[in-house]
Amino acid sequence: MELNEAKLNDLLGKVVTEMGAAANGPLITIGDKLGLYKTLSESDSMSSQQLADATNTAERYIREWASAQAASGYIDYDANSNTFSMTPEQTAVFGNAKSPVFMTGAFYAISSLYFDEPKIENAFKTGEGVSWGDHNSCLFCGTEKFFSPSYEGNLIDSWLPALDGVVEKLQQGAKVADIGCGHAASTIIMAKAFPNSTFIGYDFHDKSIAQAKKRAREAGITNISFEVATAKDFTGKDFDFIAFFDCLHDMGDPVGACTHAKNALKPDGTCMIVEPFAKDSLAENLNPVGRAFYAFSTMLCVPCSLNQEVGKALGAQSGEKRLKETITSGGFSHFKRATETPFNLILEARP
Fold first, then answer.
1. pTM of the model
2. Are 151 and 186 in contact (CB under 8 A)?
């Protein structure tokens, strides 16, 4: 077949862009760990020497790091003054850990994908799953670091108010379960905001529960507890509110998880399911967000589900239609999309 030179050049351009993105991943985590973005964002502009002095790092490395970041568009460079700076937008994404669009956590998680590539290659050959707990530990801190800013920016002010009557119950004093809580970013945010309510975080990964307990102690929160349990066997009943944050699609038996949650709720209780944003068809998800989620799903979500009973493997781009089928098959009679963000669907289900 004869090559179309224009199409070839376009594809090569995309691949070179991908090479740069992949190579810059470790530089992003280094910039975050060493406070390079934060320090630069808090200054009008800095030379590489000034940034090195301010962060107690070596200038020659800082110069090369900053050059790569400027070439990426992650920071700005002024050729006249030979200095670097960050715009408010760049600061929101890389320099401000409290920003709802702070993105550095994703790159910690991405680093785990490369560590675990041999395991996933083998899973491709065997069709077997890979347990969440068998991944490199970078995944766990990266997941917490990636999701926390979005939860901080949206959960209390936007997502919970979009649910019918839930905020009022939480203010008065409700019994709440956070299923698949991980390091408890979501659980702690809710427990802080609603001190009259009691919260129990459940996760099947014992090391995540240990970290969750540590996080709660450090935050000085007393209306919260944690248990190692799956979504199908967690203890407790008569919950006013049950939440699944970015985890239902990872479960081997999401229908069974929904059934257990429905049975654990009070008759007037509410379940919130937060899932990655997706449309209902592959064609509709061929975009930058879908691209990222399909990649994470291949390496993390599908292997995790296939490692469990049933192995439904919904994937991170299952879409609202399949999620509704799953949730209503679990016994919920009321379902609606409460709200959404560019990265999440926030779904409400009631018995």
1. 0.91
2. yes
